[in-house]
Amino acid sequence: MKRIKPLHVALVFAAAAMVLILRYVVFPPKFLPWEFTEARLKGADIAQRIVELSRGTLTRLNDVSRYDQDRNYNEALVSIARAVIENRQNQVEAVRLSSQLEDMARYIMKISPSRARSLATDAVSSEIALVTRMVYYNDYLFQLFEALKAKLENPSRSYLDGQVNELINNINDEAQSINDLNKHFNQVMAEFDAIFGK
């Protein structure tokens, strides 16, 4: 009977180890926690609602700007008051989105491969930035309400003209940022989905 040489045994083990290493390096195992997926789907719906609600407010801001230019401060104030009231739903949605982002962040470290984990981190960061922009957006909207109220109470305050225009521009900029961040989230998640063959 032929005896197996220790060198041959070592070579077989080394080859097997190389195959296993290559398997996990070249084709890493894929794992996506269902909790992450569930929070992601809910969060995407909420973010889309935020974008749509913001669009509605922007339409109203065009009216506010026109009323302000016509020095019809009463109508401008009524219009911005409606926008502030409607925007409360946006604030509620931002809180709901934060909750979903928290759930997504909780499960990111369990995602594999690492490229998918990196994309998920990027997407969650984008939506966190969206929530931050919503805070600024809401603040500018409230400041606009206060500026128009001051103009109504004392129309001779000409310095408020520039402030109203600046606030409207700031609100438009924040709305654009919100749209861009949501678009980035969707693009990153499309790349993420491709990893998992979705």
Q: Could you describe the 3D structure shown?
A:
The protein is rod-shaped and about 105 Å long. It has helices at 6-26, 34-69, 73-107, 114-153, 159-195. The relative contact order is 0.14. It has a single domain (30-195), classed as Methane Monooxygenase Hydroxylase, Chain G, domain 1 (Up-down Bundle), CATH 1.20.58. 85% of the residues lie in helices and 0% in strands. With 198 residues, the protein is mostly helical.
Describe the protein's topology:
Blueprint: H1 6-26, H2 34-69, H3 73-107, H4 114-153, H5 159-195
Tags for this model:
transmembrane helix; Methane Monooxygenase Hydroxylase, Chain G, domain 1; transmembrane; membrane; 198 residues; DUF5667 domain-containing protein; mainly alpha
- Principal-axes shape call: rod-shaped
Cα end-to-end separation: 55 Å
Q: What's the CATH architecture name?
A: Up-down Bundle
Share of residues in strands = under 5%
The CATH topology = Methane Monooxygenase Hydroxylase, Chain G, domain 1
Q: Structural class of the helices, strands and pairings? A: mainly alpha
List low-pLDDT spans: none
The succession of helices and strands, N to C, reads: HHHHH
Helix count equals 5
Biggest sheet, open or closed, and with what strands and sense?
none
Number of domains: 1
What would CATH call the class? Mainly Alpha
Number of strands: 0
